[in-house]
Amino acid sequence: QVQLVESGGGLVQPGGSLRLSCAASGGIFSTYAIGWYRQAPGKQRELVASITSGDDTYYTDSVKGRFTISRDNAKKTVDLQMNSLKSEDTAVYYCHIPAVQRWGQGTQVTVSS
Hints:
- It contains no helices and 11 strands.
- Helices cover 0% and strands 50% of the residues.
- By secondary structure, it is an all-beta fold.
- The mean pLDDT is 96.
- It has strands at 3-7, 10-12, 18-25, 34-39, 46-51, 57-59, 67-72, 77-82, 91-97, 102-103, 107-111.
- Strands 2, 4, 5, 6, 9, 10 and 11 form a 7-stranded mixed β-sheet that branches. A 4-stranded antiparallel β-sheet has the order 1-3-8-7, with no helix packed on it.
């Protein structure tokens, strides 16, 4: 059974950077498309970025040019490098594998001065 654990969240000032990591156990990691989602208070969970098994990437418009998703199949990790952070990026960030319907527990990102 696939398990996902996110890490790397925290408090950062506007304009700062954070790197989130999602570590997977179980399953055939290299075959999965994986997404990073976020949910801000009072808002619906939204897809932020995703990466396919062939390393094709997708970014929602609001993070293009600022966030980069990458994967390391040997380590079974998917990272989200977040630069030029804005207050509107504040949310709980989750990784998700649609193929096995698994979510991590989430990691809080707070962008505030």
